[in-house]
């Protein structure tokens, strides 16, 4: 029993190399698969992720089923992922290479021709993103982009955007000015109602 827990059945270097290579393969597969973030996964994407973890399990662990071997594999994954994230944060070229660039999906109220097909998106995803920005229809959007992290970012046309705090403050100031003018008019001599 103790042997199964603590004796690594493959060389540690092989375990680390297997884990790094499988990590790299998965990154490449997801990069080729498109720009779909976790928030935008559909049922089929989730099924693929669950099955993928099972498919690559043996490639990572090999013939080793020890607890220590699992710890080595898990630690390697976390360290490699942390290193890649730090690299991406420092190097814009690496970020473009591994994550790609954003893609315009809506321009001036119209879906960009071929964008949905090229990005494997459905029109319902675009409509949902528009509603999240409080737009009524795609025609309300000035610019819509699918970012490298899979988020759909919609910028509504100026005429369709909600009022900002600055807009409300400007309105308050104008109303206060109107109230002051009305008060001045009603209190001015000769402005009262004429008596008969």
From TrEMBL:
GO CC terms in record: plasma membrane
Domain named YetF C-terminal: residues: 93-162
Pfam family, one: DUF421
Membrane topology: Multi-pass membrane protein
Location of the protein in the cell: Cell membrane
Keyword presence, Transmembrane: yes
Family of the protein in this entry: Belongs to the UPF0702 family.
Protein name: DUF421 domain-containing protein
Native source species: Actinacidiphila oryziradicis
């Amino acid at each position: 029993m103790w042997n199964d827990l603590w004796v690594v059945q493959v060389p540690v270097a092989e375990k680390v190399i297997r884990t790094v290579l499988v990590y790299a393969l998965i990154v490449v597969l997801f990069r080729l698969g498109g720009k779909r973030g976790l928030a935008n996964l559909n049922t089929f994407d989730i099924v693929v992720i669950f099955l993928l973890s099972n498919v690559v399990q043996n490639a990572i662990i090999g013939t080793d089923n020890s607890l220590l071997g699992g710890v080595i594999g898990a630690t390697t994954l976390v360290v490699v992922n942390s290193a890649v994230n730090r690299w991406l944060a420092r190097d814009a070229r690496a970020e473009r290479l591994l994550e790609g660039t954003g893609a315009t999906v809506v321009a001036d109220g119209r879906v960009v021709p071929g964008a949905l097909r090229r990005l494997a998106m459905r029109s319902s995803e675009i409509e949902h993103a528009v509603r999240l920005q409080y737009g009524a229809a795609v025609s309300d959007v000035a610019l819509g982009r699918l970012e490298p992290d899979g988020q759909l970012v919609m910028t509504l046309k100026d005429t369709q955007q909600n009022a900002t705090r600055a807009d409300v403050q400007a309105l308050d100031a104008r109303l206060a000015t109107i109230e002051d003018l009305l008060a001045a008019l009603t209190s001015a001599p000769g402005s009262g109602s004429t008596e008969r």
